[in-house]
Amino acid sequence: MDAIPNPNAVTIEDAESVRAQREKLPLYTPRVKVFPKQVSGIFRRLKSVTLVVLLGIYYLAPWLRWDRGPGAPDQAFLIDMPSRRAYFLWIEIWPQEVYYLAGLLIIGAFGLFLMTSLFGRVWCGFTCPQTVWTDLFMWVEQWVEGDRNARIKLDQGAWTAGKITKRTIKHVLWLLIALLTGGAWILYFHDAPTLVQDMMHLEIDGAVLFFIGLFTATTYLLAGFAREQVCTYMCPWPRFQSAMLDEDTLTVTYEEWRGEPRGHRKKDQDLSGLGDCVACNQCVAVCPTGIDIRDGSQLECIGCALCVDACNTVMAALGRPPNLIAYDSISRQVGREQGATPRYRLIRPRTLIYAVLLVLVGGAILYSLWSRPSVGLNVIRDRNPLFVQLSDGSIRNGFTVKILNKQRRQRDFILGVHGLPDAKVTVVGQGGAHPTVWLGADPDAVTAFRIFVKAPAQNLAGKSTPFAFVIRENAGNEPGDSERHKSVFRGPEK
Amino acid sequence: MPTKIEKDAVTGQDTTGHEWDGIKELNTPLPRWWLYVLYATILISIVYFVLYPAIPWGTGYTEGLLGHTERKALEKSMSELRASRAVYIDEIAKAPLDEIRARPELFKFAAAGGKSAFADNCAPCHAAGGAGRPGFPSLADDIWLWGGKLTEIEQTIRHGVRWEKDEDTRLSEMPRFGADKILATAEIEQLATYVLSLSGGGTASAGETTTAALYTEQCASCHGPAGQGNREFGAPRLADAVWLYGGSREAVARQIAAPRHGVMPAWGGRLDAATIKMLTLYVHSLGGGE
Closest approach of chain A CAs to the CA of B219, in angstroms? Predict the structure, then answer.
């Protein structure tokens, strides 16, 4: 082994993992505070870029406009609770289509499974809102109070004027960010420019105020105080993520065979028989969840790879090869230990299955969205009375017919019945009895009609005659939309 | 209680000291704030104990500082409901029936109120939805004994049918042709056949002159020469497919020999004017309103 040129280039941190500290304690332990140290490197840059992009999307998306024609909301992403509509760009979702949300969640779940089995907990480390906002809050904290050692000193120090000032500035900034977060959340449920204008004039109703308050409070508490406790104790994902990990998954790992035996090195010490780890504890000091990655893969690790950056900085300073702590798979590490040059195995049965499921569910949802009809027909038949005997001997049944017009224009439909010879249809309130009737469906709405259907008794099969309502759009020469709804016609026993 | 805390050989972690059949539990301590959340929920429950009725004792219970009772809460919500309905009820009491029918919002309220009042007061005889039963006319069909216009329906509801305590009640009586020996049994049988033939349901030819003459003499004054009925007397139309007391030859003969007469109470004294109007509009909307 080579000799280390200058060991003093590395600071030795007085850091111990929360796990090690916790194990000395009884059944319930006081919170072990974590003071993550600033670090620079490729993963830190990646994390910062992700943070800016995601927060940018979160804060700006409600302001994106999308023209849907007159009378319709022009907000690209809007969940309009009072009028029971959700808008996503060109897609408009009605309440009964909420299964698309279930589909979206299934896609999200399989996406998470796939990403986790490929790259470990990238969701946790880079994109989870808890991580993003915690990172932002930590950045503020660092800016106000200084880096790790300054923060520890401040935390342990007496409440001097300086400490009070710094803490006040930090909490005010946190609360401001939290308020902006809570405020932006509401914008997805209201027309953003109108709501912001109303806020400026202090004209917001109790419900809006409540939700802004709720999200302000949760952001402040979760990102400012709870932080890694959310990941370790509240979130279910770390508990079952190990089911998606295998030896080929890329995770943040410590190359134990290369690092051990670890220890502080002296200048010009003979390094033969010693590992590359100089026990500087930089990896522990930068960890946002306060763990020691050298203990192996563990529940608390969110896979943010900041320890990789920290260790690589140290290895570079010592002139050692990088990636003692690496974003790598177990099998590659084992391979290297045995002297081989192992390859990445991204295509595995597990990842293939997740990918296929993801494509299947995604395809099904896209197909369903693509082919969904722009008109719906619902029929509720009267139960009391089931049928009415009329003076001319014919039988009348009552129905409530609802036409769901999912287009933003008034449409005319022709309603007829199939399977009931000589049946006559009457729209209550319009009078007359005809084989077919015209129904005008209001734009983007459900229009309900009371319908009486009259049929001669001799044309009925008995107590129950199956038939169907059919509506066809009157669209001039073009083939219009049509829908069919099966029902039964009730009559006296024969 | 933990008895023997040991160090686990594999993980190097302490055990909790609990042991079940040789199975020991590793001590993975929760943060203390998590425990405090549990204590906080217990504290909140105490707040409820103080504010709301909580602990019973033999004859009473701790009433709580807020003085809340379910009975009072119900009364309050009922009075709020009545207040919110009062606007419509006053409008309905004032406005004429035609006008209510022409105003969609008011009509919707009236029909809904009528539906509920109908279920309470009318459905026991006329069946849910006004479907009717043998002896109790259907209100959803296109035939009316006493008239199907709004005012006629209101009149029937208000004063009843053959309800002697009401002076303006709708009154009529058909002679008991058999029981009072006005006609012979054979004549009644012939008449029944003839009556059924008026609506196309009989087997005898309507041209049978003697029976036709008998019908004209005995029945036509109320039921009309062609069996078209007369609403002034509540005389049912005979020339249709709907029979209040059954459409078989036996049932018709029985009705001629010893007629049954329906009685409906006058609702004028029992229900307020607005409710009667709502009932009228509801019944009118069932499918036969004229």
Answer: 20
CB nearest to A396's CB, from B128, B132, B287: B287
Per-residue pLDDT of chain A (494 residues), as tens digits, is 456 667 677 777 878 787 776 666 566 777 788 999 999 999 999 999 999 999 999 999 999 999 888 878 899 999 998 888 999 988 888 988 888 989 999 999 999 999 999 999 999 999 999 999 999 999 999 999 999 999 999 999 899 999 999 999 999 999 999 999 988 999 999 999 988 888 888 888 888 899 999 999 999 999 999 999 899 888 998 888 888 888 899 999 999 888 888 888 777 777 777 888 988 999 999 999 999 999 888 888 999 999 999 999 999 998 888 989 999 998 998 898 888 888 888 899 999 999 999 999 999 999 998 888 889 999 999 888 888 888 888 899 999 999 999 888 889 999 999 988 889 999 887 778 888 899 999 988 899 998 999 999 888 888 899 999 999 988 776 777 888 999 999 988 87
Is the four-CA dihedral A52, A56, A57, A58 of positive or negative sign? positive
Contact A293, A259 (CB under 8 A): no
* Topology of the domain covering B185-257: Cytochrome Bc1 Complex; Chain D, domain 2 (1.10.760)
Q: Label the pairing between strands A464-473 and A482-490.
A: antiparallel
Q: Do A388 and B34 touch (CB under 8 A)?
A: no
For residue A369, the distance in angstroms to the closest alpha carbon of chain B comes to 36
Cα-based distances in Å from B10 to A26, A459, B6, B14:
19, 83, 12, 11
Q: Is B30 on the interface with A (CB under 8 A)?
A: yes
Query: Which position has the token pair 């004027």?
Result: A161
Residue to mutate among A222, A289, A387, A391, with most B CBs inside 10 A, is A391
Residue A155, in any domain of the structure = no
Residue A404 belongs to a domain: yes
* CB-based contact B29 A25, cutoff 8 Å: yes
Q: Please report the residues numbered 7 through 26 in chain B whose beta carbons come closer than 8 angstroms to any beta carbon of chain A.
A: 12-14, 16
ipTM above 0.90, yes or no: no
The tally of CA atoms less than 13 A away on the side-chain side of residue B148 is 17
Q: Say yes or no: do domains B72-157+273-284 and B185-257 share a fold.
A: yes
B72-157+273-284 — its CATH code?
1.10.760.10
SS3 A299: coil
Quote the domain boundaries for residue A389: 375-490
